[in-house]
Design a protein that fits this description.
Length: 455
C-alpha cells in the first residue's frame, strides 16, 4: 500500500518550517482507496515568497485545524503504507519534525519519485515535478498547492509503476518488510485480486518473481495455482509469500507484457516458455509465370515470413480464408495438387487468378493487398484498445514494422503529439515473437482502432 503525499510549508529556517497544507491519497497500486486533504494552521507567519508561490496566506489559515488536530488522521492513513512523494526527503522530514514537536516518533518507509524517474525515465530534460509531468502529457492543476501536486505525483507514480518491468519498486518495498511465514491475511490473498485482464506475479520472501502469467481473470487463474495438487504447484504454493498484479485492460497488452517480463525476469517456474512462439509461416515467392505465390511452410530462418502460425494447419487455413477475400488461386498458392487447373477452375467457381486466366499485374496487385492487410512490415501505427479504467486507452506502438512498447493515455493530445506519445510509451523489445503475438491477435480479434503515425 502506498500513500501519495504532498505538503506545503511556511518556509523559513531549516527544521523550523510549519505545515500549511497537506494532501494524502492512499493508493493500493491500482486505485485510490482513501484520501485526506486539509489546510493546516502553522501557528507562525508564512514567508512572503511562499505566499506568492502557493497563494496560501495567513488569513486563509486562521480557522484551519492545527497540526495536532490532524495528526491522528495522518497516522491512521499512513499506517502500514509506503510514503511516495516528489522529493520525498523534504516531505518526510517536515512530517517527522512536526510529530517530534508532539513527542511522537513518526516512522514510515518512503519512495521518491524524483529518484524513480531518474532510473525509469533517464532521458527526461528535467525532474522537477511541473516540467516532468508536462513533458509526459500529465494534466496538472493547482500547481504548488498540496492536492494539485499530490494528484500529479500520483499520475507520475502510476506511469513509473507501468515502466518498472524489473519490478524494482515492488522488490525495494517488500525486502524491507518483516519476513516470516504467511499470515492469515496472506493466506487469503486471492480474495484481494481482481477478476480482470492483466499479468500476475508470484513472489518469494525476497520479493523475487518465481512465476508470472497473463489471464483474462487474474483472481481465477491465481486461485488455480493455489488449488492445484501437482508437485510443482505445491512447491509454488510453499514459496509464494505475496502475489501482485498489473491490470492491462485488454488481452493483447497482457500477452505483450507477459512476453517481455518473462524474458527480463526468467522466473524459476516458467520453464515452459518457448524461445520461438511459432513453427510455420506464409512465405512470398514468384512462380515461373511471374505470379506471386503465398505458400505455407515450416519456419526458415533464412527467409522472412509474411505472417507466422503455430502449426501448418493454421497457416493453410489462413490461405483458404483469404482466397475468397482477395480472389486468390489455390493452385498458385500450393493448396491444390492438380497438374493443370484446380477444381475451382474446372467447375467455373474460380475466383480469378488461375494461370492464363488473368494478367499477372492484376492478380499480383490483389496479393499485395492481402499482404498489406495482414502484415505490418514497415508500417508505423498505434493500436488503440481498452485501458485499465473508464476513460483510459491503451496504445501499442509499431514503428517501421517493429513493436516499440505500450502505454496508457487519458487525453487526445497525448496520442496526437508524437513526442509526448513516445515519452509515455514503456519501451519493450520488438522481435519475431512480438510480431507473431500482435499479428496473430489482430487476425482473430478486434481492437478499438488503429491510428497511422506521422513521423
Amino acid at each position: 500500500m502506498y500513500v501519495i503525499l504532498d505538503i506545503e510549508t511556511t518556509g523559513g529556517k531549516y527544521n523550523e518550517e510549519g505545515v500549511t497544507e497537506i494532501a494524502i491519497h492512499k493508493f493500493d497500486g491500482h486505485k485510490v482507496v482513501d484520501q485526506f486533504i486539509s489546510l493546516v494552521n502553522p501557528e507562525k507567519e508564512i514567508q512572503p515568497f511562499v505566499v506568492n508561490l502557493t497563494g496560501i496566506n495567513n488569513n486563509m489559515l486562521r480557522t484551519a485545524p492545527k497540526f495536532y488536530e490532524v495528526a491522528k488522521r495522518i497516522v491512521e492513513i499512513t499506517e502500514d503504507a509506503v510514503i511516495v512523494a516528489h522529493n520525498a526527503q523534504f516531505d518526510y522530514r517536515i512530517l517527522r519534525t512536526e510529530f517530534r514537536r508532539l513527542g511522537f516518533n513518526f516512522e514510515r518507509k518512503t519512495l521518491c519519485t524524483v529518484e524513480l524517474a531518474k532510473q525509469l525515465l533517464p532521458d527526461a530534460e528535467s525532474y522537477s515535478l511541473g516540467k516532468l509531468v508536462r513533458s509526459l502529457g500529465i494534466p496538472v492543476s493547482d500547481r504548488h498547492r498540496a492536492n494539485g501536486d499530490a494528484l500529479a505525483t500520483l499520475q507520475l507514480f502510476k506511469l513509473l509503476l507501468s515502466k518498472d518491468l524489473d519490478k524494482t519498486i515492488f522488490k525495494s518495498v517488500l525486502r524491507t518488510e518483516t519476513q516470516g511465514e504467511l499470515s492469515p491475511r496472506q493466506l487469503d490473498m486471492v480474495d484481494e485480486l481482481p477478476s480482470e485482464t492483466g499479468v500476475y506475479y508470484m513472489h518469494n520472501k525476497d520479493g523475487d518473481i518465481i512465476l508470472l502469467g497473463k489471464s483474462s481473470n487474474i483472481k481465477k487463474r491465481v486461485n488455480q495455482h493455489f488449488t492445484n495438487n501437482s508437485p510443482k504447484a505445491r512447491r509454488i504454493q510453499k514459496e509464494t509469500k505475496r502475489v501482485s498484479y498489473e491490470k492491462t485492460g485488454n488481452e493483447l497488452a497482457a500477452l505483450l507484457k507477459e512476453n517481455a517480463e518473462l524474458l527480463r525476469n526468467r522466473p524459476k517456474y516458467n520453464t515452459h516458455y518457448k524461445k520461438r512462439l511459432f513453427s510455420h509461416g506464409i512465405y512470398k515467392s514468384y512462380n515461373q509465370d511471374g505470379y506471386i505465390a503465398l505458400t505455407a511452410e515450416a519456419i526458415n530462418p533464412k527467409k522472412r515470413a509474411v505472417v507466422t502460425f503455430n502449426s501448418l494447419e493454421g497457416a493453410e487455413n489462413f490461405l483458404h480464408s483469404i482466397r475468397e477475400e482477395f480472389q486468390l488461386c489455390n493452385k498458385i498458392n500450393g493448396l491444390s495438387q492438380a497438374k493443370i487447373h484446380c477444381s475451382h477452375y474446372e467447375d467455373n467457381s474460380c475466383l480469378g487468378g488461375c494461370i492464363n486466366q488473368e494478367p499477372v499485374e492484376i492478380y499480383n496487385a490483389r496479393v499485395l493487398q492481402a499482404i498489406d492487410k495482414y502484415s505490418f512490415s514497415k508500417k508505423s501505427i498505434l493500436i488503440m484498445d481498452k485501458g485499465r479504467e473508464i476513460g483510459e486507452r491503451c496504445g501499442i506502438e509499431i514503428k517501421d514494422g517493429v513493436f516499440k512498447g505500450l502505454g496508457y493515455f487519458n487525453l487526445n493530445h497525448q496520442i496526437n503529439n508524437i513526442h509526448i506519445l513516445e515519452s509515455i510509451i514503456t519501451p519493450m523489445e520488438g522481435n519475431e515473437n512480438t510480431t507473431h503475438i500482435i499479428s496473430s491477435y489482430l487476425r482473430k480479434k478486434k481492437v478499438l482502432k488503429i491510428i497511422e503515425l506521422n513521423q
